[in-house]
Structure formats: C-alpha cells, structure tokens
Design a protein that fits this description.
It comes from Hypericibacter adhaerens. By secondary structure, the chain is mainly alpha-helical. The protein has two domains: 7-56, Homeodomain-like (Arc Repressor Mutant, subunit A); 73-194, Tetracycline Repressor, domain 2 (Orthogonal Bundle), CATH 1.10.357.10. It is built from ten helices and no strands. It is globular.
C-alpha cells in the first residue's frame, strides 16, 4: 500500500522536531543521528533519505524555527496574549526572552542558547543558520530603535547580546537565585538600551 502524498513531508518534520529538542537539550556535538531518529520514532537507515549530514539537519531545524517565530508560549506572552498596545513589540520580546518561562523551556527555547561553543566549531551551514537567527532578533529590535539605522543596529546588537548572554549564564549557574538575578539584570539593561523602560511624561 503506497504512502499518502504528504507522508514524506510529515516524516521530515518529525525528524526536525526531534532534532531541535535534542540540540537544545544537549548541544550539537553531543547529539547522535541515532538519537534524533529514535526521537522521531524512526531508524537511522532512513536519515540520509532526508538530510546529507547532521550539520544540514541543524541548519534546517533552525530555519524552521525562524519561519514559525513566534510559536512557543514564551514568545507570545502570558497565555499567548498579545503585548500591551502602549508597549513596543521589541520590549515585549526582551521580557519574554529573559522570562522564567523561556528559562524553563529547554527543548522549545531559542536555538541560540543551545551550547554556542558547539556552533563555533561547526561547519558553514551551522554558522550560517545561527547567524540567521541572530539577524532575525537584531532586526526585530532595531525596527523599534529610531530612524538612525547605524545607531539602531549597534543598540540592537547590544540588546541581543544581553538577551542571549544573560540566558546562557543563567542556565549555566547552579544557584537559582543568581540565575534569576542574571536574567533580571540583563532584562533591565536591555530595556534601558532600548529606552523602553522610560514612562512618557504627561503632556
């Protein structure tokens, strides 16, 4: 009996979903193809019908993340509610990125948090995919940082560094109080750089 027409695409998506969960949890270098395929309910033998290498799989898993953003609960705010109308979207992204919900959501979190040192040792496809996610984040921030494009870009880079670096450090330490302090300090500094922490003066 032949497979349905969409069987191949569904199988590919299962592999990508398994890969993203594992890459986020363990990092690129510690995940094997066998683990990815087992997580998708498949055997290793079928892997190369869909991908040529683990690097290609990683790059595609990140690309899927950028296409579906925002889709995780931590990206959408409390219970998926839209950000307040009087608050810039970029400010809400910072709050969500450095939130406890994102901190706890290891498997569904931003792929830039999954052991960046692995990416530095990866191939071109891996680094290009990582850069794509960073570019998406920087673009989202710079759009809310005024008309001076160069200044907006520089500030957006700083905010992105605080978001990613703050969360990586928070997850790395074994002290939950320090982890919370790191996230909150990074959030406040990022909001300050964006000038999103300032309450408009009454007219």
């Amino acid at each position: 009996m032949p497979y349905p027409q969409d069987h191949r695409q569904e199988t590919r998506e299962r592999i990508l979903a398994s890969a993203r969960r594992l890459f986020n949890r363990k990092g690129l270098s510690e995940v094997s193809i066998d683990e990815v395929m087992a997580g998708a309910g498949l055997t290793r033998g079928g892997f190369y019908s869909y991908f040529t290498s683990k690097d290609e799989l990683y790059a595609e898993a990140i690309t899927v993340f950028t296409r579906r953003f925002p889709s995780e609960p931590w990206q959408c705010g409390k219970e998926g509610a839209p950000p307040p109308a009087d608050r810039p979207l970029a400010a809400s992204i910072v709050d969500a990125y450095l939130s406890r919900a994102h901190f706890d959501d290891i498997e569904g979190s931003c792929p830039m948090l999954g052991l960046p040192s692995d990416v530095a040792r990866g191939g071109r496809a891996v680094k290009a995919a990582y850069r794509e996610v960073l570019g998406m984040m920087v673009g989202a921030f710079s759009a809310h940082l005024g008309p001076d494009r160069k200044a907006a870009y520089e500030r957006a880079l700083g905010i992105a560094a605080l978001c990613v670096g703050g969360m990586v450090l928070a997850r790395a330490v074994d002290d939950p109080v320090l982890a919370d302090d790191l996230r909150e300090a990074a959030r406040k500094m990022a909001q300050s750089i964006g000038a999103w922490d300032r309450t408009p003066e009454p007219a």
